[in-house]
């Protein structure tokens, strides 16, 4: 591994983590000594990377440091394009447009050799089922997730019974035939799962719920026996 490759690998290892990671963990992952790791962190800081932390505590990469697009591998390009195409087919109108725009931005800055990989990839996404009519509230739900605001739902259960729920949005699951909202339900005082095609009406409240969504997501994962993602 060249020094440039080692620095890139260190950046990637830091970018994958949202919480501080100890230096010895990073050194073992990269197959280098702690002394080399500390020297590489100092080099990256000199180049503008916002790496916070110190020996014995851990390190975290703050947002704002971008990797040059030339560092994408062919496999990474194919993964990005395939993901972008899937979201372009399966997301709501705003999300689909954003995914297509993101792929175009990637294509615009790639060198010719890698752009041919993007243009000629054989990884295709089948057209989505017609979910637009059954998921008209997806964009509003995504906004509420981002802003950590309550939603009021008029919801029909499987038997057709209606209820009015005030919920704290936690996550939005994308399945092949349905979209599912994971939320804390004030009525039931617990986590519940709401199919978007059974939401008859939705009212954004712009009222923040009293707990952080990330903590709620952690609790929901634990309650469902789902391991944490990295």
Q: How would you describe this protein?
A:
By secondary structure, this protein is an alpha+beta fold. The chain has helices at residues 3-15, 23-30, 34-46, 74-90, 93-109, 112-120, 138-147, 213-224; strands at 51-54, 58-61, 149-156, 162-174, 179-185, 190-195, 199-208. The strands form 2 sheets. It has a 5-stranded antiparallel sheet with strand order 6-5-4-3-7. A two-stranded antiparallel sheet has the order 1-2.
Question: In order across it, which strands form the biggest sheet?
Answer: 6-5-4-3-7
Portion of residues in beta strands equals 15-25%
Q: What's the oligomerization state?
A: single chain
Radius of gyration: 22 Å
Summed over residues and divided by their number, the pLDDT gives a mean of: 86
Q: So what's the overall shape?
A: globular
Helices and strands: which structural class? alpha+beta
Helical coverage, percent range: 40-55%
Q: Report how far the terminal alpha carbons are from each other.
A: 25 Å
Q: Compute the number of helices.
A: 8
Succession of helices and strands: HHHEEHHHHEEEEEH
Largest sheet: 5 strands, antiparallel
What is the tally of beta strands? 7
Low-confidence runs (pLDDT<50, min 5 residues)? none
Annotation keywords:
5-stranded antiparallel sheet; two-stranded antiparallel sheet; alpha+beta; 230 residues; 8 helices
Q: Mind sketching the topology for me?
A:
Blueprint lengths: L2 H13 L7 H8 L3 H13 L4 E4 L3 E4 L12 H17 L2 H17 L2 H9 L17 H10 L1 E8 L5 E13 L4 E7 L4 E6 L3 E10 L4 H12 L6
Antiparallel strand pairs: 1-2, 3-4, 3-7, 4-5, 5-6
Helix pairs in contact: 1-3, 2-3, 4-5
